[in-house]
Amino acid sequence: MSLYQLRKAVYMDHPILSISDQCRALGIHRSGLYYSPRGESQMNLKLMTIIDKEFFDKPFYGVRK
Predict the structure, then answer these.
(1) How is the chain classified by DSSP, letter by letter?
(2) Does residue 64 form part of some domain?
(3) CA angle 42-45-50, nearest 5°?
(4) Is position 65 within any domain?
(5) The pLDDT of residue 59
(6) Is residue 23 part of a domain?
(7) pLDDT digit string, tens, across residues 28-65
(8) pTM exceeds 0.90 for this model
């Protein structure tokens, strides 16, 4: 089972098992249930593009001769 499927298997309002018990039984972290990935900011994408361009234009920079 994938991690996504394991997270979907946890019932938030289970009458008997707590969320902690369900996570322990499935072998996943409880904090992972509430995590939602965030995308990169526009500024970070722009900076990564500039760094990539500079690296591919001059790959020899930073190498000791």
Answers:
(1) --HHHHHHT--TT-SSS-HHHHHHHHT--GGGGS----PPPHHHHHHHHHHHHHHHH-TTTT---
(2) no
(3) 125
(4) no
(5) 79
(6) yes
(7) 999 988 888 889 999 999 999 999 999 899 878 776 65
(8) no
